[in-house]
Design goal:
By secondary structure, the chain is mainly alpha-helical. The chain has one domain. It is 76% helix and 0% strand. It is elongated, with a radius of gyration of 15 Å. The model has no long low-confidence stretch (mean pLDDT 97).
Length: 114
C-alpha cells in the first residue's frame, strides 16, 4: 500500500505541475485561455487528492486535519469548476486567469505551510 500511496502522491504533484504550468505559460499573454494542461491538471488534482485522503484514513489509519482538507477540497472544486466552465471560450479575462493562479498557488501553500 505504501507504493500505491507514493504513486498517487506523484500523480497529485504532476497534476499540480500541469495546472500551474498551464497557467504560468500564459503570464505575458494578453488573451489567456484555458488550455488542456489546466483542465487535466485540475481534474487530476481533484481525483488524486480525494484518493490520498481516503488512503490515509482507511488504509494507514492516519490522523487527517479535516478542516485543512475541507478548505483544500473547496478550493480545488472552485478551480476545477472555473476551468471546466471556461474551457471552450476563445479567451478568458485576465482577472479570471489571475484568480486561478492565486487559488492554485494558495492551495499548494496551504498544503505545505499548514
Amino acid at each position: 500500500m505504501q507504493i500505491l500511496h507514493g504513486i498517487v502522491l506523484i500523480l497529485h504533484f504532476i497534476g499540480w505541475a500541469a495546472l500551474f504550468g498551464g497557467l504560468f505559460v500564459q503570464l505575458k499573454e494578453s488573451r489567456p485561455v484555458v488550455n488542456a494542461a489546466m483542465l487535466h491538471g485540475a481534474l487530476t488534482q481533484l481525483i488524486t487528492g480525494v484518493i490520498l485522503v481516503g488512503l490515509l484514513e482507511a488504509v494507514f489509519d492516519a490522523e487527517v486535519n479535516h478542516i485543512k482538507i475541507g478548505i483544500k477540497l473547496l478550493v480545488t472544486i472552485v478551480i476545477t469548476v472555473l476551468v471546466i466552465a471556461n474551457r471552450r471560450k476563445e479567451f478568458i479575462p485576465k482577472g479570471l486567469w489571475a484568480i486561478l493562479l492565486v487559488l492554485t498557488v494558495g492551495n499548494a501553500a496551504l498544503a505545505v505551510l499548514w
